[in-house]
């Protein structure tokens, strides 16, 4: 008997943005789905617009599993996680240990498939960077949603997320932010789809 997937499905119980006053809570499961979709889009932009040969499907699956160690660690608030280099190093080690523990739950013949998704080994640096960008874009989108609902507490987080995305110097992310991100601030009535409803 393997409890790997029953553990992975516990992502829905991990609430994100723990230090922030949220108008709408967000769980790790929905966040991971959104990161996967954005990561796939970034890889597609790379392939279609920038002449790259990225495996968009693999990058999307990386996005699905990118935070699953938080089933064990919980969601560490960003200001705490990155407070100083010692905390960052220690938390990275905790994440590596959590990944190893999750891999142990798999049948032996499946470990080679899922282990790289949990610990980033076997993935290229660029694939990992695309998933990181997708994660930051999702943070930016969450901030937009909260601000639209009148929650000013996310103003600084939005600016910070936008700065991190820009600092990545990733053309795929820049294109997404220019072409897709602005629509997240629109109401349903302001989006073109509303005419069809």
The Cα radius of gyration reads: 17 Å
Number of helices: 10
Mean of pLDDT: 92
Number of DSSP-assigned strands: 0
Stretches where pLDDT falls below 50 for ≥5 residues? none
Structural class: mainly alpha
Percent helix: 55-70%
User: Hey, roughly how much beta strand do the residues contain?
Assistant: under 5%
Q: Shape from CA axes?
A: globular
List the helices and strands and how they pair.
Layout: H1 4-8, H2 28-50, H3 56-65, H4 70-73, H5 78-81, H6 85-104, H7 111-119, H8 125-148, H9 155-167, H10 171-179
Helix pairs in contact: 2-3, 2-8, 2-10, 3-8, 6-7, 8-9
Structural account:
With 197 residues, the protein is mainly α. The protein contains ten helices and no strands. Helix 2 runs antiparallel to helix 3 (56-65) and helix 8 runs antiparallel to helix 9. It is globular and about 50 Å long. The termini are far apart. The relative contact order is 0.14. The model has no long low-confidence stretch (mean pLDDT 92).
């Amino acid at each position: 008997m393997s409890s790997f997937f029953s553990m992975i499905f516990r992502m829905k119980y991990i609430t994100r943005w723990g230090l922030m006053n949220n108008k709408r809570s967000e769980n790790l499961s929905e966040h991971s789905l959104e990161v996967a979709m954005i990561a796939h889009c970034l890889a597609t932009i790379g392939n279609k617009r920038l002449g790259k040969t990225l495996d968009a499907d693999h990058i999307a699956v990386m996005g699905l599993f990118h935070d699953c160690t938080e089933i064990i660690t919980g969601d560490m608030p960003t200001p705490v996680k990155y407070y100083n280099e010692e905390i960052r190093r220690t938390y990275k080690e905790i994440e590596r240990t959590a990944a190893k523990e999750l891999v142990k739950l798999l049948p032996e013949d499946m470990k080679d498939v899922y282990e790289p998704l949990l610990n980033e080994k076997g993935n290229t640096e660029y694939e990992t960077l695309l998933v990181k960008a997708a994660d930051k874009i999702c943070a930016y989108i969450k901030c937009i949603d909260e601000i639209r609902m009148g929650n000013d507490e996310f103003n600084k987080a939005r600016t910070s997320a936008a700065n991190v995305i820009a600092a990545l110097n990733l053309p795929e992310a820049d294109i997404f932010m220019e072409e897709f991100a602005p629509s997240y601030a629109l109401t349903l009535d302001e989006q073109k789809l509303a005419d069809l409803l």
